Every structure is written in C-alpha cells, then in structure tokens.
Amino acid sequence: MSATHFQLDPQGRLLHFLTIEGLTRRHLTDILDTAESLHGVAERRVKKLPTLHGKTVVNLFFEASTRTRTTFELAAKRLSADVLTLNIATSSAVKGETLLDTLRNIEAMQCDMFVVRHEQSGAAEFIARHVKPHIAVLNAGDGRHAHPTQAMLDVFTIRRHKPDFSRLQVAIVGDILHSRVARSLIHALNILGAGEIRVVGPRTLLPAQVETLGARVFYDPAQGLRDVDVVVMLRLQKERMEGALLPSEQEFFQRYGLTEERLALAKPDVLVMHPGPINRGVEIDSRVADGPRSVILEQVTNGIAVRMAIMSITLGNHARPAGETP
Amino acid sequence: MSATHFQLDPQGRLLHFLTIEGLTRRHLTDILDTAESLHGVAERRVKKLPTLHGKTVVNLFFEASTRTRTTFELAAKRLSADVLTLNIATSSAVKGETLLDTLRNIEAMQCDMFVVRHEQSGAAEFIARHVKPHIAVLNAGDGRHAHPTQAMLDVFTIRRHKPDFSRLQVAIVGDILHSRVARSLIHALNILGAGEIRVVGPRTLLPAQVETLGARVFYDPAQGLRDVDVVVMLRLQKERMEGALLPSEQEFFQRYGLTEERLALAKPDVLVMHPGPINRGVEIDSRVADGPRSVILEQVTNGIAVRMAIMSITLGNHARPAGETP
Amino acid sequence: MSATHFQLDPQGRLLHFLTIEGLTRRHLTDILDTAESLHGVAERRVKKLPTLHGKTVVNLFFEASTRTRTTFELAAKRLSADVLTLNIATSSAVKGETLLDTLRNIEAMQCDMFVVRHEQSGAAEFIARHVKPHIAVLNAGDGRHAHPTQAMLDVFTIRRHKPDFSRLQVAIVGDILHSRVARSLIHALNILGAGEIRVVGPRTLLPAQVETLGARVFYDPAQGLRDVDVVVMLRLQKERMEGALLPSEQEFFQRYGLTEERLALAKPDVLVMHPGPINRGVEIDSRVADGPRSVILEQVTNGIAVRMAIMSITLGNHARPAGETP
To answer: Distance (Å, rounded) from C-alpha C274 to C-alpha B43?
Structure first.
C-alpha cells in the first residue's frame, strides 16, 4: 500500500497528512472549507478554540525550520493543544538511540500527533507506518518529496482571491528540481482542476519528465509568465544545491528573477506568491515582493488556519471509530 | 538531618522527592495508588486535570536528558501547570553567576516546584535545602546517587503485573556501579518487601559491599536469572565509564546481554524491564527488547502517571499547613 | 516623531513600552498602581489571570538573557497568553533572511505582542515603527539605550518601601556609561519627582554630560553614598567593556564596591538594589548583597508584576479604538 492510500482509512478519510498525491478534490475542498471557517479565529479577541484541549502535539524536527515549526506550534496552541518540540538532531542522537526507539518512546508518552520535518524523502510516511494507530502524522516537509501543508496554504490563498480554478493559469518558477513545494503544489492544483500549470526554469533545475506530473514546461520566462493568474516563485535552495547547476545567483536573477518588467507579462490582477523565506534580488525583486500584487505575507497568515484545519480533521478522524459517520 | 528525613515534614509527609531511602512502605504505596488513579487520565479524550492550574514547575536540567525532561514536562502539563525549562549549563553560566544566586532568582519568580537533574550526587538535596519552604524539589537524577522517580515507575510497572511483592524475585543486571537507577530501585523493592533482590554483573561493575543494600550478588547470569519474576537490564553507561572496566561492548553482551536463551532461565511470565534508552546488542538482544515479555514501553507510559502522582502529592503537602490532616 | 512620542497614541496612552523618556508621572503611576494590584496574584493559590487568554506574545531575543526572558515568559503565562520564544541569532539567520522579513513573517502569524531584546540601541523602536499597528512592542533592553521595564520594577520596589519620592535620595553606582539600566532609571526617578539622583563612579565609566540627564555626579563613594535612601549598584558589564577603562575588577571593588563600611554612610533604612546578576566581590560584597538592607530578590519578584502590568496596559490600549475612554 503506497503512502497515497496509507494516509486514508477504509472509508477514505484522512488519518495522516503525508502527501497530496492520491487525495481527491473532496479531501482538498474539505480542508479548504474548514480552514476558511478557522481563518476568522485569528481575528477574534480570543484567538483560541478548545478543539484539541487535552491533546499533545509533538513537533519532531530533524531539520531546522523556525518558520514552519512556529506556524505548526501556533496552530496547535490556538486549538488549545499542549505542544512539545523535540529537536531530534541534538537530543537522543547523543545516546545513540535509533530513530524507531525514539519514536516508540514518544508514542508511549501518549501523544496524539507528530508533526515531522526531515531531510529525507519518505521520512514522515515511514514514521506514520510505524507509530501506533491512534497517532496522526503530519508531514511538515520531507527531503525533495513533499510539503503538503505548504501546497494547501498556497491553494487556500489562491482560492480566496480567485475561486474559479478551472480557468486558472499558474506559473511555478525557479528551482523545481529541488523543491518539495513545487511537487506538492502541482498535485494540489491538478486535483482542484486548475486550467493550466506551468513550470518555468533552466533545464538544469527542472526534473526529468516533469510533464508527466501534469505541467507544461517553459525555459523562457517571457513565454512562461504570459497571461498567468498566479506566479509562484520558488526559493533558490542554496543549501540543497549539489554541484554547479547554476553559474551564479546574479545570472539566475537576470534570466529568471521576478522583476516588475517580467510581471507585466502576466494578467493585471496576477497574484505573486513565494513559500518564503525570500532571497531578495535572487529569485525576486524587492519591488515585486513588497508590491501590490504580492500575497506572500497572506500565505503566512493562511498557513496557520490551514494547519489548524488539517490538525482538526486528522485528529477528528482518529477519534471516530472507523465506519462511524461524522 | 539527612536527606532521608529532610524530604519529610514533621508529620512525615513528603515535601520533596529526593531519594527512596528512609521512606516507608506507606509513602510508596500512596504514590503507587495515586499513580494508579491518574493512569487512566491519559486514556481519556481530554488528558488533563486541573490539579496544578496556576502553578509553575521549573525544569532545572544541568545535564541533558530529553526523555526524562519530556516526561516531567508532560506530567506537569497534564496537571495544567505552567512549565519553564532552564538548561542551566548554557544560560546564566555565561555571566558567571553562582548556582545559589541562580536558584534564589528563580525562586523569587514565585515558582512552586523545581525538577532537578544534575551530574553531581546530592545536587537535588542541596537545592531542596536552600530554596524557600514553599518550593517542592523533585530529583530527576543526580550523579550516581539516586533516580527515585524511575524507581517508582519501575515498581509501579511491576505491581500492575505482579501485585504480590512478598514472593517476587527481581534480578538487576549490568552496570550496577554507575547506576543511580539500580540504587533507587533496590531501596524501593526492599521497602515494598520484595522476596529477593539480585544484582548480576561483572565484579568491576558492582559496587563494593552491595550486599549491605539488601541484594544478593551473582557474577554469573546463568545463576542470577534462574526463576526470577523480573529482569531489569541496566543501560551500559558508556558516557560515565572512566577507565577500562570492561574489555568491550561485545564481550559484555556475550557474558551478560539478555538473550532469549538466558531469558528462558527465568519464570515463564518474567517481566523484562529497562530504564532506556536501550543499547540493542549491548545489554539486550532486540528479540527480547521487542518480545512478548518486554514491558519497556509500558515503563515510559507509566512514568508520566507516576510523576503526576509525585507532583500532586508533594505540592499538595506544601499547600496544607503542617499538622492539618488531608 | 521620536520614540518618546511614538509609543503613545493620539490620546497619550501607551501603545508600546520602548523608553521611559517622554512619559508623564501619570503613565508611570498607572503602571505602578496596576502592578500593585497584580502583585498579589503570585501569592494566590492559582497564580493566573485570564487577561491575555487567546493572545500570543513573542519573545524576540537577539541577545541571550535567561533571566529577563524568563520573567517576561512567566508574566505572559500568568496572564494566560500563549508564549513563543524565538532566538533570532540562531534561527532564520541561517537562511539569510533580513530582520524586516523575519518581522513581517512573525506579524503575519497574527501575534499580539513582541518582547524585544537586542544589542543595538534603538532596535525595539525600529521594530515598533515597522510592525502592524495591532502589535504592542516592549523593549526588554536595547544596547546602551534603555531597559525601561527594569527601571519600572526598580521604582516599584522603592515605592513599596518608601512611597514619598519627593524626599528620596538615590545613588546609582558603578558603570553608568554602559548601563541602559541607569539611563532608564534616572528618567523614571526624575519623572516621579525624586528628591536627588546621584551617579557615582570613576570618570571613565560616567557618560559625558551626565548632569544633563538630571543627576549629580560623584567620583568619590564616600561622598556619593552619604545619607542616601537607596543605593543602586550596577553590574560591571565585563562583556560590554571595550578597551581598558578600568585597571582591574579588584581595584574597582576597592574603590567603589559596596561594603558594609560604605553602606554605613547611607541612611540606616537604606535600600540596596541591583539589577542582577550580581558579581560578588566586584561591585558588591556578599554580606551586603545577602544582608538585611538588600531588596535585590524582591526586585526579581516585583519584575513579574510590573511586566504583567505593562503587558496588560499596552495590549488593553491596542484593543480599544483610539479615542474611546477606558
């Protein structure tokens, strides 16, 4: 059974959130609708709901990420959960414990949810397969494979501005090869029936056979950005680049960086998105990042509502005996 | 006044939890009974009790221990306390403050409980002697001296399976010399009237005059494990070993490691225990650690209930004026 | 508009707490009165108020400070806020994000308050000027500039013992030049109408034109301490000293250290204060630090009530639309 099915119970309900692949439009729409109803919570005077009161959420971060960890922590706290953050790289590794023993021990502490960030593809799925059935596992980014909560906050942000996906043209620009964000986003857009998905970048930063994911390939941004509704700029993953795939950051900016001139090729009401943190002057010009078409900070805000939604849904499905209707 | 009496008030009630020595069977039974009633909390939908709402528990860890720190943190949070974790080695030491000044400052912040882990024997007692009387101090492991909450979760785990201690034969195997776990456990088992306590290990890893603690010494596991009800394997404390007390880990495993063959010498319903983290293939074979007689992960689960019990009891005794009946 | 006015709304109410300069006696008295009412909370069985339930307080510490961070964290938790601590130096700096981008991201997570500690003067004000208007910014120490919550807890501590400021003589002794504590305290004492403020120290550790702040200068402690009501000893900021302003710590203690002999020059009911952590035998003798006139640990306790008061007031003023009367 592949990860795509493993994350669902026999009734097809989400038990974990490991990857977008294999989910239905209904799954994604449920998450988006729940996130929409939770979005207002942060505007209220008391930004908390009792949904996860008495539950324990464990952040298992094998790879540093202040931003992602923080949004998951806030999402859990706003649902009234207790949150435990374990930086695994620096803790039990000292005593030479294996990953599985560490997991077994944490699950024995009767936690309810693991949020997993790992530099290796498949790590979250591996953990989901080995923890006890009452624990929900959320993938907060695994290697080059997937970053499904980021993809969901991206489509949530798009939907709030442009609810009709059928006519949507989305360009994803930059280092597609190393980007788990891109892979997850392409899947989500396809499932939601987006009109056209384009990937734009130099040949060296596009994965082989990227078309099979359901995306059109453009090497030239002058063509790839023409008339699009959304531009998603990817971060140049300097820390992930092995070997010299690119001559220099400067050259990348010159050929692919999102400037006002290039942005003018897109629709006038184009949305500019970026998963952050941005490299100003590398993949995006500051005037665009801070300009009127940018929704980059909205993405951050939306990330909390979307993560609250995914936490509520997966733990809710764990609480209900299989077969019971909600 | 020694630590054994210092942790009690004039009525003999627990104010701190520093060492098992000097406690009565009544003290231990109270903790075990309270832990039993709290054990069910983690099974409930809402895993929280309001017992310590508004109290502040400070984890003072002078020595790294993710596992122990985490279980104390969870225990405190499940009792609704606020938890503050201070890694002392890396903080005020920078500014050259003395330990006592650090303590005085934290107690001035009106905290209610200190959970202390320190590499020096007697550190928790030293702290208990110097803090203000309203603060309860729990020893989470001090040097080679004591690890009394671990001993309590061990006897709690045994009692859940084998409630009659009078006929119990328990073998503690391995590095007794460096083990605070072993010292505390021997005391607890004696107080609870265990039938026979055996320590099993090479001469170099047994403390001089260990018999005076009330344990029978075996150098040969073939004899030490015969017909026992419980085997407690100790972690080979590689990081504590000074000098060459042992030829190699391999030789240790060959002579003392718990294999299925050796385990067959014990009673058929023997319990296999280990304080964790385990060294697979050093003190225990994986087939035994993961086998049907192992209760190693139950120990972790039980550790939370036992720590919740000790927190409730000691803080409860602080709240009541001396002499008042509960 | 300078920081002194920037922290107030058009009605003159506190929106941020960046500096004591420019505040009125009314502002300070409001804080002190609120702190007085909160001071009793820590004595209660349940040390919590629901004031900030559902609010998120972010500790942005660009400079390590366990003590200050801890008191802010406790203050926020005792007001039932969720607290997030970000050690900026070690997190997003890794990915090369600019300070402003980090801020924008955290504010997009819909936090309500930033507590800022930074080694550069003006950092807290810079942040307050750039965050969204719904966020309150508290200065927890910026460079040599200000440490206004420390000044407030100092005057709070004085007022509890000596409520009539008009006749008060206060000596601030030591390294005035590098001390943000001294600068903030001098302002607070002046605003509250203290009788006389003295600064006492070697010429090399007094700022040029310190008299313009409203303080009398003494190079000789024998004169500076005579008949004072309060002595505030400053910490010798070894880590801030650039160049050889002082021959040695020993010489400093000999010439300025607070000994019982020197203290005898002051009023019999003098208060001995110190912002901590103290350097025993450098700026203060242990017999004085631990003696009957010392209120150093009271300062720590009071710091929590004062910070709770400032958090409540600033967030309360954010919640009320400008122009609305409380």
So the answer is: 49
Neighbors of chain B by Cβ distance (3+ pairs < 8 Å): A, C
Of B56, B84, B86, the CB nearest to C47: B56
Of the ranges B40-49, B93-102, C115-124, the best mean pLDDT one: C115-124
Beta bridge partners, A61, equal A87, A117
CB contact under 8 A, B101 and C239: no
User: Phi/psi of residue C315, each to 5°?
Assistant: -70, -35
Interface residue of C95, C100, C135 to substitute, partner A, most A CBs within 10 Å: C95
Interface test with A, best of C77, C82, C320 (most A CBs within 10 A): C82
- The tens digit of pLDDT for each residue in A115-171 reads 999 988 899 999 999 999 999 999 999 888 889 999 999 999 999 999 999 999 999
CA dihedral C305, C308, C310, C315 (to 10 degrees): -160
Burial of B227 (C-beta count, 10 Å sphere; 0-12/13-18/19+): exposed
- Closest to C101 (Cβ–Cβ): which among A42, A47, A277? A277
Domains of chain C, CATH where assigned: 3-146+303-319 (3.40.50.1370), 148-300 (3.40.50.1370)
Written as tens digits, the pLDDT of chain A (326 aa) is 566 678 999 999 999 999 999 999 999 999 999 999 999 887 777 789 999 999 999 999 888 788 889 999 999 999 999 999 887 765 444 455 677 888 899 999 999 999 999 988 899 999 999 999 999 999 999 888 889 999 999 999 999 999 999 999 999 999 998 899 999 999 999 999 999 999 999 998 998 888 888 999 999 999 999 999 999 999 987 765 556 566 688 888 999 999 999 999 999 999 999 999 899 999 999 999 999 999 999 999 999 999 999 999 999 999 755 444 44
Cβ of residue A279 closer than 8 Å to a chain C Cβ = yes
Give B97→chain C minimum CA distance, Å.
6
Average pLDDT, chain C: 90
Decide if A97 and B64 are in contact by the 8 Å CB cutoff.
no
Q: Does C41 touch chain B (CB under 8 A)?
A: no
Question: Is the Cβ pair C74, B108 closer than 8 Å?
Answer: no
The pLDDT tens digits for A165-209 are 999 999 999 999 889 999 999 999 999 999 999 999 999 899 888
Among the partner-chain residues C77, C277, C304, the one whose CB lies closest to the CB of B101 is C277
What integer is the mean pLDDT of B117-141? Answer: 92
3-state secondary structure chain B: CCHHHHCECCCCCECCECCCCCCCHHHHHHHHHHHHHHHHHHHCCCCCCCCCCCCEEEEEECCCCHHHHHHHHHHHHHCCCEEEEEEHHHCHHHHCCCHHHHHHHHHHCCCCEEEEEECCCCHHHHHHHHCCCCCEEEEEEECCCECHHHHHHHHHHHHHHCCCHHHCEEEEECCCCCCHHHHHHHHHHHHCCCCEEEEECCHHHCCCCHHHHCCEEECCHHHHCCCCCEEEECCCCHHHCCCCCCCCHHHHHHHHCECHHHHCCCCCCCEEECCCCCCECCCECHHHHCCCCECHHHHHHHHHHHHHHHHHHHHHHHHCCCCCCC
DSSP readout, C109-153? TT--EEEEEESSTTHHHHHHHHS-TT-EEEEEEETTTB-HHHHHH
Tens-place pLDDT, residues C250-280:
888 999 999 999 999 999 999 999 999 899 9
